[in-house]
């Protein structure tokens, strides 16, 4: 099981770093990912605040 941090999720969602995005997608497709609620909250915060999404 792999614990995703905020950076890994953001790279996957934003696809702004092809290498990290690909690696994240491989883990997700394997169903081998775990994420804490705190990480989800930070992802939302960054997407809304920094990227003005949402």
Structure, briefly:
The protein is mainly α. It is built from three helices and two strands; from the N terminus they run E-H-H-E-H. The longest helix is centred in the middle third of the chain and has 13 residues, at 18-30.
Highlighted features:
3 helices; 54 residues; two-stranded parallel sheet; mainly alpha; 7% strand
Tally of helical segments: 3
Briefly note the structural class of the backbone.
mainly alpha
Outline, from the CA principal axes?
flat
Q: Give the termini distance in whole angstroms.
A: 30 Å
Q: Compute the average pLDDT.
A: 95
Instruction: Note the main sheet.
Output: 2 strands, parallel
Helices and strands in order:
Elements: E1 2-3, H1 6-14, H2 18-30, E2 33-34, H3 37-49
Parallel strand pairs: 1-2
Helix pairs in contact: 1-2, 1-3
Describe it.
By secondary structure, the protein is mainly alpha-helical. The chain is built from three helices and two strands; from the N terminus they run βααβα. Strands 1-2 form a two-stranded parallel sheet. The protein is flat.
């Amino acid at each position: 099981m792999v614990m995703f941090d905020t950076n890994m999720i953001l790279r996957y969602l934003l696809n702004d770093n092809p290498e990290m995005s690909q690696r994240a997608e491989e883990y997700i497709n394997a169903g081998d990912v775990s994420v804490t609620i705190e990480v989800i909250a930070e992802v939302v915060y960054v997407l809304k605040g920094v990227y003005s999404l949402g």
